[in-house]
Structures are given as C-alpha cells and as structure tokens.
TrEMBL record:
<dbReference type="InterPro" id="IPR018247">
    <property type="entry name" value="EF_Hand_1_Ca_BS"/>
</dbReference>
<dbReference type="InterPro" id="IPR018159">
    <property type="entry name" value="Spectrin/alpha-actinin"/>
</dbReference>
<keyword id="KW-0175">Coiled coil</keyword>
<keyword id="KW-0106">Calcium</keyword>
<dbReference type="Pfam" id="PF13499">
    <property type="entry name" value="EF-hand_7"/>
</dbReference>
<feature type="domain" description="EF-hand">
    <location>
        <begin position="359"/>
        <end position="394"/>
    </location>
</feature>
<protein>
    <submittedName>
        <fullName>Alpha-actinin</fullName>
    </submittedName>
</protein>
<dbReference type="InterPro" id="IPR002017">
    <property type="entry name" value="Spectrin_repeat"/>
</dbReference>
<feature type="domain" description="EF-hand">
    <location>
        <begin position="323"/>
        <end position="358"/>
    </location>
</feature>
<feature type="coiled-coil region">
    <location>
        <begin position="70"/>
        <end position="103"/>
    </location>
</feature>
<dbReference type="InterPro" id="IPR011992">
    <property type="entry name" value="EF-hand-dom_pair"/>
</dbReference>
<keyword id="KW-0677">Repeat</keyword>
<dbReference type="InterPro" id="IPR002048">
    <property type="entry name" value="EF_hand_dom"/>
</dbReference>
<dbReference type="Pfam" id="PF00435">
    <property type="entry name" value="Spectrin"/>
</dbReference>
<feature type="coiled-coil region">
    <location>
        <begin position="191"/>
        <end position="277"/>
    </location>
</feature>
C-alpha cells in the first residue's frame, strides 16, 4: 500500500493529451484494483474484530494495526480521488492547449497564404500605355486589398492566441512551424510591398497623365496649324477685285503664312518630345503630314500668285479680256478640287465634261498632254488658259455645248445619271457633275450648268 501511495504521489500527470489519457486509463485500472482489494480489507477487518471479541491477549496491538490499516486505505482512496481529479483537470488543460495549437496553426497558415498572395500581386510590374489602363490596373489592385482590414483583425486574433499559449507555457506547436514573429515580420514586409506598389501606381498614373497631356498639346497644335492652313487656302480662293489687287492679297496671305511658321515649329517641337517619350503612335497626326500641309499651302499660294501673274501677262499681251481671264480663273479654281494650284488629268476631264466635250480617256489624255507644255503631269493656269483660248478660237460655242448635252439627254431639258453613264462618262466625272449641276424634276439641269460654265 505504501508503494502505491508513493507511486500515486510521485507519478507525473503527463505532458501531452495522449499521455494524460494514458495516465487516466492507468488510474482507472488502479481504481478497479482498489475495488477488488476492498473485499480483502473487509475480510481483514472481520478477522480482527473476531479476535478482539475473543479477548485476545494482545488485542490492543491488533486493534492498533487494524486502525492503521484502515487509515492508510482511506488515505490511499483520498489520494486516488485527488489524483483522478488532477488528471481530469490536466486533460481539460491539455485539450485547451491542443485547441489553441490547432487554432493558431490554422489562422497563421491562412494569414501566410494571404500575405504571400498580396506580396506576389504587389511585385507585379506597373507598366501601362494610357491613363485608362493605369486607372483600371489601380482599381484591380485596390480590389485585391479589399480584405486587408479583415486580415488585420485576424492578425490581432492570432496575437491573442499567442498570449494565451504563452500563459499556458506552450512552447512548441506540432501543427505549424510558424511563430507569431514569423507572421508579424511577413505582414510588415507585405505592408511595405503594398506601399511601394501604391507609390509605383501613383507614379505611373502621373506619368501617363503627363503623356496624355503631351499628346493632347501636340494634337491641339496640329489642329491649330491645319485650321490655319485651311483658312489661308479658303481666303486665297475667294479673291476679289482687279488682278493686281488679288496679287497683293496673295502676298498678304503669304506673309501671314510665313509669320505663323511658328505653328509648324511648335508641332515639330511637340513631336520631338513625343519621339523621346515613345508616344508617336498615340496620336492621329504625323509630323510629315503637318509639314506637307504647311508646304502645300505655301506652294498653293505661290502657284496662285503665278496664275494671277500669268493672267496679268495674258491680259496685257494677248486679246484675252479681263472678263475672260476671270471666267477662266473661276473655272480653274472650281475644278482644282485639292487646291494645289494645278489641274490633274481627272480634274481636267471634269472640265471637258462640263463643257460638253464627249471624249474618251485616250482622247482626253491627248488633249491634256498637248497643253501640258512643261510635262509636269498637271495643267497650271497659264496652260489652262492656252487650252481655253484655243478652244474658243475653234468656235466651240455655248450653243455647241448645249447641243452636245441635248444629244446626251436624248432631247430632254434634263439629263439623268443613266444617260451620262451611257455617254461613256467616268464615274468620278458623273459624281462631280451631279454634285454641282442643279437638280430639277426628272434629272439635272444641264442648260443652267453650261451657261454657268461659259458665263
């Protein structure tokens, strides 16, 4: 009995839940053994009492032994009950520790997965091509951080679990190798990565906004230049007064163009910046087309001045009247569709059709080449005047033109698109005529058109 007492007193409760459960099983077996031994104790007490009742000569010693035996048995029972209670309490404590280990491991692992995902997202390169792209990227990134506050609450919960584990002297966790310090360090690294990514996104946003402004400034300068050139051309096609006055107006427009060359230079400066920033492809304009627009305007003014000078010389050196020069000039400008100061073959073909000359393409080409004296591939105004003078000298009158159109119109006072096509006119010429010939009931008024062409 003394050995059992010593064993119960000195036996450890167990350091893990499985050990405690094993100790509880062992103690249960011990209690079962005590129950079995209680029968033996009852027999001993009965024998002792019988001896005492028989007035045994050494009854006092027997009684003393019986009392000692019963006291030890009672002490052993109390000690067993205390041990059982201690084991049950230790089991509860170990279960609590196990729950803390599991909860800490699950939460720590979950946080590390989140932290690693955010760190990976925060390390993605921030490179976009427009303001819209960086705004979209920023929205996606901020959406990935939407759960950050909840995860911070989880981190606080993990810290509380770690405090509980420290209070219970838990130093190891078989469910996870992660410590609170590991998670805190990773969390701080993640926060730094988020700050760096947000800074990178903001820098990229500022860069793209700057790039967008550069492109916008270039396009505004380009539109300003093109509008300016267009207005110069329009002014040069609406000249009034005597030829000398028109030449003076062209000179004024030329000076205005030269004085505003800074508009082109501004475009060129903006374009160099776009090249440096690799933004050239983000604009609808090219510097080449802007340079061409400016140079073509200058060329048009030069050719128009040359035309006017030719008109003046023709007026002074030939039988052509000023009224005829103005008539030729108006017709020339009417058919100079691209405002280049010269007529291309397709534009000259429109002149012939307007005059009622029914020539096929080969015949038209022969006439064109005949008057293209400098073989430039276009008819300048002086060459056009030569053609018109020669044509008039050949007595091609308004009556002849009206007769030609009357044949095409099959005797009607109007002509239709179908009839112009049947006469062999080209599609482009028909389009031009229908856009400029007055439309009347049944078709187009060719008589009014011919009269306008001659007058």
């Amino acid at each position: 009995m003394q050995n059992k007492t010593s064993e119960i007193e000195n036996a450890p409760l167990g350091e893990t839940l499985p050990e405690v459960n094993m100790k509880i099983n062992d103690h249960t077996s011990f209690e079962s053994e005590m129950n079995d031994k209680s029968t033996t104790l009852d027999q001993v007490n009965k024998l002792g009492n019988d001896i005492l009742n028989d007035n045994y000569f050494n009854a006092g010693e027997v009684e003393s032994k019986l009392n000692e035996l019963n006291q030890n048995w009672e002490n052993l029972g109390n000690l067993s009950n205390n041990k059982k209670q201690a084991l049950e309490e230790e089991k509860i404590r170990q279960q609590k520790m196990e729950e803390l280990r599991i909860e800490f491991a699950q939460l720590a692992n979950s946080l590390m997965i989140y932290i690693n995902d955010i760190q990976a997202t925060s390390q993605e390169p921030v490179k976009t091509a427009s303001v819209n792209e960086i705004i979209e990227l920023d929205e996606e990134y901020q959406e990935s951080l939407a759960d950050l506050s909840n995860k911070e609450n989880d981190l606080n919960t993990l810290s509380g679990l770690a405090d509980e584990m420290n209070n219970m002297n838990i130093t190891e966790n078989t469910y996870s190798k992660l410590s609170l310090d590991d998670v805190n360090n990773a969390w701080n690294e993640m926060k730094n990565a988020i700050n760096e990514q947000n800074n990178a996104i903001q820098a990229e946003k500022e860069l793209q906004e700057g790039n967008e402004n550069l492109v916008k400034e270039f396009e505004e300068a380009a539109n300003d230049l093109l509008s300016f050139c267009d207005n110069i051309k329009k002014s040069s096609t609406n000249l009034q007064g005597e030829i000398n006055e028109q030449i003076s107006e062209i000179d004024n427009l030329t000076n205005e163009l030269n004085n505003n060359k800074n508009k082109l230079e501004s475009c060129e400066s903006h374009n160099e910046t776009l090249i440096e920033k690799d933004l050239v492809l983000q604009t609808d304009f090219t510097i080449l087309e802007l340079q061409i627009a400016y140079n073509e305007t200058a060329s048009y003014l030069s050719k128009t001045r040359g035309t006017l000078e030719s008109s003046l010389l023709l007026k002074e050196g030939s039988k052509v009247t000023e009224e005829e020069i103005k008539e030729y000039q108006n017709m020339f400008q009417l058919f100079d569709k691209d405002k280049k100061g010269a007529l291309f073959p397709y534009e000259f073909s429109g002149v012939l059709n307007a005059l009622g000359d029914d020539l096929d393409e080969e015949e038209m080409k022969k006439v064109f080449d005949k008057y293209d004296s400098d073989k430039s591939g276009t008819l300048e105004f002086n060459e056009f005047v030569d053609f018109m003078v020669k044509r008039n000298e050949d007595s091609d009158t308004i009556e002849q033109s009206l007769e030609s159109w009357n044949v095409i119109a099959q005797g009607n006072n109007f002509v239709t698109v179908a009839q112009m096509g049947q006469a062999g006119m080209r599609k482009d010429d028909i389009t031009y005529l229908t856009e400029n010939m007055p439309e009347i009931e049944g078709g187009y008024d060719y008589k009014a058109w011919v009269e306008t062409a001659y007058n």
